[in-house]
Structures are given as C-alpha cells and as structure tokens.
Design a protein that fits this description.
The structure holds two protein chains of two kinds. Chain A is an alpha/beta fold. Chain A is built from eleven helices and twelve strands. Chain A is globular, with a radius of gyration of 21 Å. By secondary structure, chain B is mainly alpha-helical. In chain B, 74% of the residues lie in helices and 0% in strands. The chains are: A alpha/beta, B mainly alpha. The interface between A and B is medium-sized, with 27 and 17 residues.
Chain lengths: 328, 278
C-alpha cells in the first residue's frame, strides 16, 4: 500500500462559519495501480488529490490522516513536503498552457525539476530533459526542448507537463483532470501514454476526473465522491459494469450519451450538485436520487460492503436490475 | 483592477507615426552627450570668457552664451551627465530597492506584508519638497542630497507595483505547477515571478526617468540642488532668470532640452507599455 487516507476532512472558514468540503474520506491506494477519483465539480476530488501532495490551500483546515509510504503528509513542514514533490510525488494539471511558464523554453522547465532538487547540474539536467521528452514520445525532442510553450501544440504541451512531473522519478503521479483541456483523439493518446509510462516507470497513478470515458479507459479501482463524501469505492469492473450506488448508476447512464438513440432524451441526472455549505442532511444525494426513501432524508448512510465494492447507500441497486433504475 | 480598461488606456497612448523614432533619436543624442561630451561640446563649460558674455546664438555659439561668456550649448552637453545622470540613478536605485521590497512583501505572510505596505504608505504620504528641504538642510545642498531625497520618495511606487504583480502572479497555474514540482519559493520568485515583473518595471523605469529629470531640475531650480558652476539644466534656468529680458536663448534652450528629454522617455515608456498590452 503506497497511500493510505484515513478519515480525511478538509474545510474552510467563511464568515465565522466552518464549511467542510471533504468529510471523513478513507481509502487506500495499492502500489502500481491506477486509482481514479471521480466526481462532479465541488465534490472535493481535487482538494483530496492536492492534499496528498501537501498542496491544499493554506487557508484550509484539515483533519484525519494521509500517509504516503508510511509517512504522514498532513501537518508536515512545508520544506519537507517540497523535497518530496518531484522525486516522490509528481503532479500534472488540467491546463498545460497556463501551467507552463510562457517565458522559458520547455526544456529548461523540465530541467528545473532536477536542478531544484539538486539531482543534476545544469548541463546534466538539460540532457535528462531531452531524454524525458523522448520518453513521453515527443518525436523531435531537441526542437521541443528549445521551444516556448506557445510554439508547440496542446498535446505536446501536455506531454511536456508529464515529462516535467516525471523527470525527478516519482513513484506516485497525481493527475488532476489531465485530459479535460484536450480533444478526443489527443485524450486517447494521452491515456495510452500514461498507461505505458506507468508500466515502464513503475508508477502508481491517482487520476482525478469527472469524465467517465477516462475512467473506463484506465481505472483499476474507482472512488466515487459526491458532495465531499464517498458514495462508492471498489474495483473498476464491478463499478462500471454493475454500479450499486444510484449516483454511480446515474453517472454511467449519463455517460452513455453516444449510445443513446437520437430521438431519446438524454439521461441527465436531475438537479445540480449541492454547493459547499448547502449539503443536504441525511444522504447528500437524496434530493436527486430516484430511490430515496424517508430515512435517506435524515439518516446518513454508513459505508458498508456490498459484493466486491463498498458503498454508502441505504437502498443500493441489486445486481439483478442494473442501470434501468437510474433512469427513473 | 480592471485589466481591460488599463489595456484600453495604454492602447490609446501608443505613439503614432514618427514620434517614436524621434524619441529614440533624442535618447541616442542624449546618450552621446553623456558618454562623449568632450567630442561634442565645442567649448569649455566652466571657464569664464567675460568678453563674450550674453552673446545671442551664432555659428560659434549656436545656443548663445551666458553671463560668464560660457557657451550654453556646451554647458547643456556637459550638464546632461548631471541632470539625466542623477535622474537615472534615482530611478534605478528606487526600482532595485522597490523590486526587492515589493517582492518580499508579496511573498511574505499576511501580517508582514501588511506592516511592509503601511511603511510604504508612510513614505508615499511624505511631500517631496519638504523632504528635499530637510535632506538639504541635514547633509547640505547638492545633487547628492537631491538624489537621496527623490529616491526616498520614489521607491514606494515600485514596491507597490511589484507587490501587486507578485500577488497576482503567484496564483498563476505555472507558479503552482512549479510549486507542485518541489521548486523552492526563492527559485519560484526568481524564475517564475520576477521574470514577469521585470517587464512591467521596465515600462515604469523608462517613463519615470523623464519624471525624475523634471523633479531633479525643479529642485535645482529652487536652489536645493546643484551648486554653481555645475552646468546642471535646472540650475541653468535658475541662473538665466535675471537675464530673460535681454537673453532669451539662455532660458529657452535648457528649458527645451528638459522638455524634449522628458517627452522622449515618456513616449518610449508608452510604446513599451503598448507593446506589453498587445
């Protein structure tokens, strides 16, 4: 087990009031797997991912525990966290154009990861930057290393970002919506690249996304977050093929837009995700849930085992009736 | 701060037609004055020649002569070092200090940032002339006390500008990405923040040289700056006042130089700002 999150909560103070964005989340990530955290915006998925690297907003208060390779990451001094970012944990972000410094050549920025940690001198770092660009399958690494971010394509930029994140040889890669800014063909290439790099470099990947297509492509295990709480967690196959939580089921059906006949209505989930500070009582999904009963309104569902998955739902979907129920 | 309105304002000020080439030409000539005054000035700027006093412009004295018979053109050429030189020193010293101060303030914790900015407010609130008088009274009149007092009131502008830019830039995704790679705060500041701030500071420095020149010459004009016989431009104008009725050239040429120089730097600053905004 490379990462162990226990009862992790994070929140903010606003006008004297505490707003809890992520509430008591626990999960483990095994070495070598691709662990996907999926949720809508505001579900707390990015906050959870960033906190693993100690990059939660400085104004946030946290509780619980995040252990990476048996070392507590929460409440760790900034200087120590900084030393871990790069050589132990790499991060890639959604928007590669704004995440690259526009006034430095791409190669220099990759090299910076190495020089910042004293892993190589300048000349050596340059050489390794070009190797990294080759490694992320950039066909003309010397040219790209000398180019500025605006001179290369979006796919190239995202590859350069990946090269930056992996240059110092981390064992854990946190990818926060890495494909959101990319078009569909590039997205597929990028996921394939991540899968290949994972094998070659013995990586563990925590992928944060709201895109079910991405999940289907790469996930070993899935964590479904809803309004700061775990809805469902388990092996990707079980969750994708036979979702038990009504929210997951609804996500799956709404993702099947491309398979929906043109005349048929889209299976959107009714309503919108609740905002921070206005989470409903009981099960937080109940206002949008087609299966909600009386007790869902007041009693928070406990997390329990259900087949191969664990979920938090009073009335999970039985294996016999997949998908249909979520269509209401 | 609304970026778009600022952009619009700058776009309006972009110099048109020949203005920018002319401004660059003026600066090139000034640079020659500063670097090689001996080659350009036809006469000694200090030595008196009482036989030639207050002569109108002619082929030997193209800008005429002053009450000591000295060539006004030569005095202007030599004076560039003093007037423009001091202005440049003031602006560069202020910019250097202000950038460091503003960057530290922008990266520091809220309490320290607040304290540092209140100190800046204190300096901002101080009237330049009163400060110049006080400095002149304590260390004596001269260009050094002008430089000191103007630098004291000049740096807070840079500190504020840089702090604001740092606050804006440090939330930018590329800065966060660098942080996510474990780059230290010092390196982030140096490589990922200052490199942007410098562009903004360049614009300000260029424009400010013109303003600082006006301030320096104004203080000399008021008798707080250069002492005779230094050919400082403000002092030339001060000395020329008594002869204005009979010797217009003595006042007009130094005055025109100050105006041309200030305008040229201002135009170049606008051009830089317009290019940044584009």
């Amino acid at each position: 087990m490379i990462l162990s999150v226990r009862d992790f909560s994070i929140g903010f103070q606003r006008e004297g009031e505490s707003l809890v964005a992520v509430d008591g989340v626990s999960f483990d990530v095994e070495e070598g797997e691709t662990f996907v955290i999926i949720g809508e915006s505001g579900s707390g998925k990015s906050l959870t991912g960033m906190s693993v690297a100690g990059l939660q907003p400085p104004t946030a208060f946290v509780s619980g525990s995040i252990r990476f390779k048996d070392r507590e990451m929460l409440r760790r001094p900034d200087a120590e966290l900084r030393k871990m970012r790069g050589p132990e944990i790499g991060l890639i972000y959604q928007d590669p154009l704004s995440s690259l410094n526009p006034v430095w050549p791409v190669g220099d920025q990759i090299a910076e990861t190495l020089t910042a940690h004293g892993l190589a001198d300048r000349a050596e770092a340059r050489k390794r930057a070009i190797e990294m660009l080759e490694r992320v399958r950039i066909p003309d690494p010397h040219r790209v290393a000398a180019a500025y971010p605006h001179e290369i394509s979006g796919g190239m930029r995202q590859r350069a970002m990946i090269a930056m994140a992996l240059a110092a040889g981390p064992s854990l890669l946190i990818a926060d919506e890495p494909t959101t800014a990319l078009d569909v063909t590039i997205k597929a290439q990028m996921l394939e690249l991540l899968a290949e790099l994972k094998r070659e470099m013995a990586l563990t990947i925590v992928l944060i996304t709201h895109d079910m297509g991405v999940v289907a492509e790469v996930a070993d295990r899935i964590l479904v977050l809803y309004a700061g709480r775990i809805a469902e967690i388990g092996p990707a196959d079980a969750i994708m093929l036979q979702p038990s939580h009504p929210y997951t089921a609804a996500l799956m059906t709404s993702a099947m837009i491309s398979q929906t006949p043109a005349k048929q209505d889209l299976n959107a989930i009714v309503g919108g995700a609740p905002g921070l500070g206005s989470f409903p009582a009981g099960c937080r999904f109940h206002p949008r849930c087609p299966r909600a009963q009386h007790d869902c309104l007041s009693v928070e569902p406990p997390r329990r085992k259900f087949g191969t998955v664990e979920l938090a739902c009073h009335y999970p979907i039985e294996a016999a009736m997949p998908l249909e129920i979520a269509r209401g | 701060m609304s970026v778009s309105s600022q952009t619009a304002r700058r776009a309006l000020k972009r110099p048109k037609g020949l203005l920018l080439p002319l401004a660059l030409l003026v600066v090139a000539i000034l640079a020659a004055f500063v670097l090689l005054p001996g080659l350009i000035a036809p006469h000694d700027p200090i030595a008196l020649a009482m036989a030639d006093r207050l002569k109108p412009p002619s082929l030997t004295h193209i800008f005429g002569t002053d009450e000591g018979g000295r060539d006004v053109f030569s005095r202007i050429v030599y004076g560039t070092r003093y007037s423009l030189g001091v202005a440049i020193v003031i602006v560069f010293a202020s910019a250097l200090f202000g950038v460091v101060y503003g960057a530290v303030s922008g990266m520091a914790s809220r309490g320290i940032d607040n304290l540092m900015m209140r100190i800046v407010d204190l300096f901002f609130g101080f009237p330049a002339l009163v400060l110049a008088l006080a400095v002149a009274a304590s260390i004596g009149r001269g260009l050094d006390s002008v430089a000191l007092s103007l630098a004291i009131i000049w740096w807070p502008g840079y500190a504020r500008l840089v702090r604001g830019e740092v606050l804006r830039l440090r939330e930018r995704p590329h800065v966060e990405a660098a942080r996510a790679l474990g780059v230290s705060e010092i390196t982030i500041l140096r490589r990922h923040i200052i490199s942007f701030v410098i562009q903004e500071v360049n614009v300000r420095v260029t424009t400010d040289i013109g303003y600082a020149l006006v301030a320096v010459t104004a203080l000399s004009f008021l008798g707080l700056g250069a002492n005779s016989p230094t050919p400082e431009w403000g002092l030339l104008i001060r000395d020329s006042r008594s002869y204005f009725g009979s010797a217009w050239w003595y006042l007009v040429f130094p005055g025109t130089m100050i105006m041309l120089t200030a305008t040229a730097f201002s135009l170049i600053g606008d051009a830089l700002a317009a290019r940044r905004a584009a």
